[in-house]
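Q: Entry one of two.
A:
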Amino acid sequence: QVHLVESGGGLVQPGGSLRLSCAASGSISIYAMGWYRQAPGNQRELVATITNTGRTAYADSVQGRFTISRDNAKNTVYLQMTRLKFEDTAVYSCNAATRAPWSWGQGTQVTVSS
């Protein structure tokens, strides 16, 4: 079982940027990883994925604004978010992308507000 701890969220104005981190308790180097988000009243959605070889993919809603990356030596996955919009407000979590998910961490709240 891998435990995941997300950090880096906060309150930001529209157009601003944030960098989220997801630290895993064990090695995740062989796994594709993803960043997910869940807004109040909505289902959790997958917004970005990165394979174990570094190939990335994004939801249309964040394409061109978000960048996912990973540092396998640190067992950490990142999400650089730029040009944030009101609709990006959500709790962001990371987890495996192509295997059964591990237990979900608490996530990190991102609030975009003026």
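Q: Entry two of two.
A:
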Amino acid sequence: QVHLVDTGGGLVEAGASLRLSCVASGRIFSAYAMAWFRQAPGKEREFVAAISYAGETYYAHALKGRFTISRDNAKNMLSLQMDSLKAEDTAVYYCAGARIEGTLGYYSDYIQIAQYAHWGQGTQVTVSS
């Protein structure tokens, strides 16, 4: 049973930074791609960033440059550094673990919700303007 716990959300002002963390248990963390998604009120869940088992990173085009995804396989931990936050970044953020080991393929594969079978409970990020 895979278990993901994501933390680090909060209420910040526009322009501030936050760092989200996700701790995984239940399988060999280093063998799987991981990702962050977010869901704003009234909107569908959307891709934020992903990192392959080998450390290759993928970002939503609109967020690249402000957000940085990383992983620490020794600690079974996934992180998302969010800088220069904007009001439109307000959402619940979810970490996600891939269904299968190894590479998921191309960018178009990493951004698909269906590629991820395991989800954290979500952490609220609120950015005031």
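A: Comment on entry two: The chain is about 5% helix and 50% strand. Residues 66 and 83 are 5 Å apart (CA to CA).
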